[in-house]
Amino acid sequence: MSESFTVLTVCTGNLCRSRLAELVLAQRFADVSEIRLRSAGTRAAPGRMMPEEAREVAGFMGVINIRAQRARQVSEDSLSAADLVLVMTREHRRAVVELNPRIVRRTFTIRELASLAAVTRDDEIVSEGALPSADRATRLRAAVGAAVRRRSRRRAPDLPTDDDVIDPYGCDRDIYALAALQLAPAVEGVAVLFQRALNLGEEE
Question: Cα separation of 1 and 3, whole Å?
């Protein structure tokens, strides 16, 4: 099994939401070499760059190094290579699972995974394989496995759209701000889950 843990974030154009999630998580775990961050779009226009408004939001979300990267189209291979696929809406989840059905268990909307992370206990992560003797990638995969088990017991959100992050592309800065308000706590929830899994192996 791979010694790395690859996270693929996905939105529509790979210009705003998925790039923001990728950048924030990459900065948060810059010192964890096992975590690899990638992003892509379900209907990307390859070669396009992150718009100015999204770059501003990245700065507000604490990203210091906003790397230049052109939009990429999601592919069956990029999905297969990911240990965790974080999409921005339920429609993105349907699209990527149709493209590669084998990823269904490890694909979440980012807000869905954040809510599952909040109720996933450390002992559940350990039971999935996050033992002190396990390497970091194994512990991270165990955290995903524990969240998967929690999924069947999760209470449905009050509104289905509560699992989605609104698409700000082409909108004014108020909509970008709303997207950031939905995305930022979700990214933080995922980051906390990752950190808990990593810490489990360092407690002994």
Answer: 6
